[in-house]
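User: Sequence for GPI anchored protein below. Tokens please.
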Amino acid sequence: MRQSVAILSLFASAALAANDTIDFFFPGGYEGADPVASVVTANPTSTVLRLACPTGTDSTECGFGEGFDYKIISTTIYEMTMSDSDINMNFHCAHNTQAANMDCTVSIGGGEANDPGVTSTVLSGSQIAFISATVTAGEDLLVSAAETGAAASSSQASLDVATLSPAANAGPVSTASSTTIATAIATAIATATASTTASTTASASGTSRSEAAAATTNAAFRYGVEGSALLALAGAAALNMW
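Assistant: Structure tokens for GPI anchored protein:
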């Protein structure tokens, strides 16, 4: 049985068994065949993945095409880079788990980008949607990174306890825990509908909602995408780049 795993410790890597999945954030959500993930590099603080459609999957059933690079940093920062000869796009999202929101910045550029630029927005609630990718290569890198991180955490905990003063030792000592890996629920994919600022800023004195939407649509011309959520636009752009 496939298991959905999330990394809930300080480390951005987890030991995964064959056919396990890893969850990642994608702007605007996604519907279709789950992508596959190859682990490119992994260490105790970051993991780089190559995400693509499963071999043999029809392009109408999976929008990830030839794939793109995806980086997870310290379990809460998600970065994607995607480009072809005419356009490039990347996003950086930092998940504040305590505040239950995600601060995202999207950059679109290149010769075919109708309205290149950088835009930021904050997502919350159901707008923070994760997708599962089946890990098909590189599990050994995740295992090695997780073991390295756990060993470092254990060594630091032992050092902290050994160097406590006698006064500090008067009470019970709590040691740091090692890396923990827990099964996460498969989050229902939701469309990110965050309100963002269009690259052409609407005047504060009464620009209508339809005019603001039109300004954002201009940025999406190459992809035929409409709407006011630039993150959803970025996600749609990525899925249609191929």
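The two ends are 31 Å apart (CA to CA).
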